[in-house]
């Protein structure tokens, strides 16, 4: 019995932590035309480009933005390189 407990604890400790997931996108508003580039943090279930679009569209749509495109999905390693470009829309949604 003790061997099973130790084995289970070892497996739990060895499980990799889930890496954070982000996407960058382009959006627009009409009348007058406004464009923005942004970065959002995604949940594990939307951490694919195909699933990210609907999640991002819902979030930004609350403020009247229309999603034009999801550019890419990436992890923490690429996050800081996108901060300056996204400006006010860096992790806003």
List the helices and strands and how they pair.
Elements: H1 2-14, E1 21-29, E2 34-42, H2 49-61, E3 66-74, H3 76-79, H4 83-86
Antiparallel strand pairs: 1-2, 1-3
What would you say this structure looks like, in words?
By secondary structure, the protein is α+β, with helices and mostly antiparallel strands. It has one domain. The chain is 37% helix and 29% strand. It is built from 4 helices and 3 strands, in the order H-E-E-H-E-H-H. The chain has a 3-stranded antiparallel β-sheet. A hairpin with a 4-residue loop joins strand 1 and strand 2. The longest helix is centred in the N-terminal third of the chain and has 13 residues, at 2-14. It is globular and about 40 Å long.
Structure in a nutshell:
The chain is an alpha+beta fold and about 90 residues long. The protein is built from 4 helices and 3 strands.
